[in-house]
């Protein structure tokens, strides 16, 4: 498990305080899905199995209006909230989530990194200059630890 | 399938028209962030006296990079031949590991989100993401 200084904890809590899970959850998934859906659907056709029940996710307009995608965005951010509140032991707490994503959902692990990047960009729209290079660096350290936790049960 | 659609190109050109006057500021901020957030990239700039955010070498190089992006926008219909000499430069002279193109692209997108939060909609985000990925591919052309 990653070690955190007091300063880093303060920075991460400060960033997270500004995140409205409802507001950003909807937009986040739209940005991620729109950015990566072409790649995802062509390269990983089994994604249809998971998103098959979501309805129309094939155009930008549809993605932005899809309530199931919006709900999924909030689910993802709620999981992130757990990590913010448990910075010293979220790796263990994420083990079941990791297993679920590898064994049931079969997500290409690169998507964790891509979604993390989308989270940062979505938050950047909100925080603007407050997300200065140093804050971004600390936030990136946190998201990398989250991605690592999501990868922890790979091929177990 | 990863190539830019006509709509992507139109979106990129329209957005670029709005932001191009801030090109130097965007480049400086993106480069500053890359060096701080992904310190492994500093290895390419060890000859600089100062790699800190907003320093003279960072500003100058940020402007150079965004000049390249401007050129790519102008040549968006044929990036491979349009960016040929830049590709040779990155492959043979600079020898930048192409993985770093993704890192710089991400930081450019972060800066765009910060500087233009209303204009940087999800649709613009995806077009710019695809565009920067296409530029990175064109720059990697000469690597093999």
Automatic annotation (TrEMBL), chain A:
KW Chloroplast (keyword) present: no
Q: Name one GO biological process term.
A: hydrogen peroxide catabolic process
Q: Which family does it belong to?
A: Belongs to the globin family.
Organismal lineage:
Eukaryota, Metazoa, Chordata, Craniata, Vertebrata
Pfam families (alphabetical) = Globin
Q: Which UniProt keywords apply?
A: Heme, Iron, Metal-binding, Oxygen transport, Transport
Q: Enumerate the InterPro entries for this protein.
A: Globin, Globin-like_sf, Globin/Proto, Hemoglobin_b, Hemoglobin_oxygen_transport
Coiled coil location: none
For this UniProt entry, the molecular function terms from Gene Ontology, in alphabetical order, are:
haptoglobin binding; heme binding; metal ion binding; organic acid binding; oxygen binding; oxygen carrier activity; peroxidase activity
Q: What is this protein's record name? A: Hemoglobin, beta adult 2
Residue ranges of domain Globin in the record: 3-155
From TrEMBL, chain B:
Q: Which CDD domains match?
A: Hb-alpha-like
Q: Which SUPFAM superfamilies match?
A: Globin-like
Where the record annotates domain Globin, the positions are 3-144
Which example biological process does GO assign this protein? hydrogen peroxide catabolic process
User: Do you know which InterPro entries this protein is assigned to?
Assistant: Globin, Globin-like_sf, Globin/Proto, Hemoglobin_a-typ, Hemoglobin_oxygen_transport
Keyword Nucleotide-binding: yes or no? Answer: no
Keyword Metal-binding (UniProt) = yes
Q: Name one GO cellular component term.
A: hemoglobin complex
Gene Ontology MF annotations: haptoglobin binding; heme binding; metal ion binding; organic acid binding; oxygen binding; oxygen carrier activity; peroxidase activity
What single Pfam family name could you report for this chain, choosing any that match?
Globin
Alphabetical UniProt keywords: Heme, Iron, Metal-binding, Oxygen transport, Transport
Q: Which family does it belong to?
A: Belongs to the globin family.
Q: In its UniProt entry, what is this protein called?
A: Globin domain-containing protein
């Amino acid at each position: 498990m990653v070690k955190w200084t007091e300063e880093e904890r303060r920075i991460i809590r400060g960033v997270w305080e500004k995140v409205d899970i409802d507001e950003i959850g909807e937009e986040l998934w739209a940005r991620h899905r729109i950015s990566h859906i072409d790649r995802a659907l062509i390269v990983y056709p089994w994604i249809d199995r998971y998103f098959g029940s979501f309805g129309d996710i094939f155009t930008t307009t549809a993605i932005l209006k899809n309530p199931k995608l919006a709900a999924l965005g909030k689910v993802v951010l709620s999981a992130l909230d757990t990590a913010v509140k448990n910075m010293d032991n979220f790796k263990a707490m994420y083990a079941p989530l990791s297993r679920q994503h590898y064994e049931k959902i079969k997500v290409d692990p690169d998507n964790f990194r891509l979604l993390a990047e989308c989270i940062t960009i979505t938050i950047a729209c909100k925080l603007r200059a407050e997300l200065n290079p140093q804050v971004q660096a600390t936030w990136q350290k946190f998201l990398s630890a989250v991605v690592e936790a999501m990868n922890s049960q790979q091929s177990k | 399938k990863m190539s830019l659609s006509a709509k992507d190109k139109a979106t990129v050109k329209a957005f670029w028209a709005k932001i191009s006057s801030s090109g130097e500021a965007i480049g400086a901020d993106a480069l500053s962030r890359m060096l701080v957030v992904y310190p492994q990239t500093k290895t390419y700039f060890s000859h600089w006296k100062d790699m800190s955010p907003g320093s003279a070498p960072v500003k100058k190089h940020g402007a150079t990079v965004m000049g390249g992006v401007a050129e790519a926008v102008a040549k968006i219909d044929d990036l491979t031949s349009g960016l040929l000499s830049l590709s040779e430069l990155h492959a043979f002279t600079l020898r930048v590991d192409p993985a770093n193109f993704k890192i710089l692209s991400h930081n450019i997108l972060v800066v765009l989100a910060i500087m233009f939060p209303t204009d940087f909609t999800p649709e613009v985000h995806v077009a710019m993401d695809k565009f920067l990925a296409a530029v990175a591919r064109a720059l990697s052309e000469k690597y093999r």
